[in-house]
Amino acid sequence: MQVAIQKALILVAGLGSRLDPLTKILPKCLVEVNGTPILVNTLNHLAANGFKEVVIVTGHMESIIKNKIGTQFKNMDILYIRNEIFHKTNNMYSLWLASEHLLEDNGVLLIEGDLFFEEAVLTKLLNTDGGSYWAVDHFVLFKEGCMLTTDETGGIEKIDIIRRSLSAYEHNQHKSAGILKISSQMGQILSNCLEFEVGQGQINIYYDQVLSRHIRKFDLNICDINRLKWMEIDDLHDLNKAEAIFKSPGPPENADTALAQIA
After folding, report:
1. Please, are residues 145 and 185 in contact by the beta-carbon 8 Å criterion?
2. Is there a domain that residue 152 lies in?
3. Number of folded domains in the chain?
4. What phi and psi values does residue 90 have, to the nearest 5 degrees?
5. CA distances from 20 to 28, 99, 226 (A)
6. CATH of residue 81
7. 70-118: per-residue pLDDT in tens?
8. Is 140 within a domain?
9. Which domain holds residue 91?
């Protein structure tokens, strides 16, 4: 019988400068979508799915996050790890700081701190089998970001960071939705890979790039969340998209429509 994951890691150390002027007074993870802070939305869904502990890697405006969330949230223990050099590192370094938490026997959930999503996203990912899964959507809807290419079995065989629209999109090219379910076996390997990259001075890269460099070491599959509501919020345009997608509790199919209309 599969034992449920009970720990999540959330990365929120970044400056969020593309969300100025909002992030002049708030950390990015506390920017609100229709009145709900991004981080609070994530914590609500984790609590609803029985999580017991959440590790939050902070940096920019850490005190505001701590004051807002505290050390307990709906019966979950909240642990903070501070990235002291958040201004000159990227999220792989934040994940490295928390790498001991990748070694959970039951596995761990990794969530980027700028994601706003409905609970069904989390539920679908958690209901996959005991392996490691990366939540993804159809890449053509987003046109840039972290792109995962899969083989015929659904395993991830290539990871690219795309900065501009492609001339064509293949059915096996997927957009990262920034949430990974990591098994204990993958957690150990990923911890070792992070240690290696930090030892090489590679502290200002994405964790996606670490996974890309070592992809053949992982048995990592996709969990398709197309038609479910989610949004990665990097700038004010993304925030407007998120508020359009989540403005009402309508059917999940509304997410594609909103993206197409606002893109």
Report:
1. no
2. no
3. 1
4. -125, -175
5. 9, 31, 29
6. 3.90.550.10
7. 999 999 999 999 999 999 999 999 999 999 999 999 999 999 999 999 9
8. no
9. 7-135+176-257
